[in-house]
Amino acid sequence: MTDNVKYGVSTWLWESPFNTQSIALFPKIKGMGYDLVEIPVEDPELINGQLVRQALEDNGLEAVVCGAFGPTKDLTHEDSAVHQNCFNYIEKCFQLCNLWEVDFLAGPMYAAVGKARMLPLEDRKKEWDLAVTNIGKVCAMAKDHGLSIALEPLNRFESDMINTAEDVMRFIRDVNCSNAKVLLDGFHMTIEESNLSQAIKIVGDRLLHVQVSENHRGIPGTGLTPWVDFAEGLKAIGYKGAIVIESFTPEIKELAGAVCIWKNLAKSQDEFASQGIEFLKRTFK
Question: Do the Cβ atoms of 204 and 237 come closer than 8 Å?
Answer without folding.
Answer: yes
